[in-house]
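#struct-pred
JK: can someone run the complex with adenine? inputs below
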Amino acid sequence: MRIDIVTLFPELCDSFLSTSILGRARAKNLFEAHCHQIRDYTKNKQRQTDDYPYGGGCGMVLYAQPIADCLREVQRQCAEQGRSRPHIVFMTAAGRPYNEAVARRLATYDSLVLVCGHYEGIDERVIEAFGDEEISIGDYVLTGGELASLVVADSVLRLQPGVLAEEKGYQEESYWDGLLEYPQYTRPEVWEGRPVPPVLLTGDHNKIDAWRGRQSRARTRQRRPDLYESWCETHPITQIPRWKRTERAQLIRTDAQLDAAAAIYSEGWMQMCRDICAPAYVEAHTPAAMREELARQRGEGWAFYLHSTADVPDGLVGVCHKTGEIGHLFVKTEARGQGIGAKLLEFAIKKLPEHPRPWLAVLDCNTGAMGLYRRMGFAPDGVRNVFDPATDPNSTRLCRELILRRCQPVSGTR
Ligand code: ADE
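RT: done, structure tokens with the ligand placed:
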């Protein structure tokens, strides 16, 4: 790939592209980079690059002519090298937002030109005449496009084959798969009293991968719900983990099973509602109270199933044959991250063959559960309740209980 930066500060850009990982890759000819001085293309005696804006206003505007001549020279050089027509990007705060998907698209061009504006902007006519697109790196205004062009150059060039020592490197990093990166640790094992998460010291790579996956999903849910939502849309669960030989789900019949289910229900409910309900209300949902609730709902037509691994109860799900509702899907904290939730949801769907579109209710603040349901083919189908602190003394944060209904079964779901 060839990358050209058109700027009033070519030394600044060139020094960045000659440093560290990019510098080494450039020296190995893994990409070609050229930084052009706009001033070299001026035609006036003072080598002036900008002028006052027509219509008045503060600041200066870059002339079209030197930028156009510089771009023509880049086009000429690319043609001489037998390259395809360069893709020309103007860096402006008014451009389209930049992200990893755009970086991956730009990385496919054989030749990319980044034009840096300065002062108040660039004469619009040169953008119209040459620009394939305008890009902004964020909702803030920089004094010039240099930093923005280097952000784009860096994120595009690191995707070029060989630039990162191991290709795997960039696949695991933030945004590659639409999720934020999991946290990383290095020596010492305990730093200022803070130990490394013990799972990372086990040497068990299945466990480590599962932990990292959970961390990535949880971080993305908390920090970037927008990213998480799109990730769920694009990552349907098509491969539900197989049931292990030690796993089973049993219809709850005995008192002991009901006790175990009530304990899981109570723990899950309290975790789910801790941030949105008054503490006294949360604390009232003890295992004993939840046992009564389960017994009452059984009388109303619900069937509950207890999941256990090696005879230790660790999950719960309920189905209502009358209405086609699935509910009470909870997995004990220590059993999470092994796909038990997805397995139990699939199990519940199969228990309701008479309901082609089973449904469930979920709090919109329970982003973890929402993600699982979306990925399992459930889509919003209305609002069942609104919990509003203004009208409900037990609630401390406004949240809605949404109804999600199964759309098309997820293709490939076993
Ligand atoms: N030039 C000034 N601000 C910018 C931004 N946010 N992105 C790209 N170019 C810019």
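RT: quick notes.
The first strand starts at residue 2 and ends at 7.
Residues 2-169 form a domain with the Alpha/beta knot fold (CATH 3.40.1280.10).
JK: thanks, will look after standup
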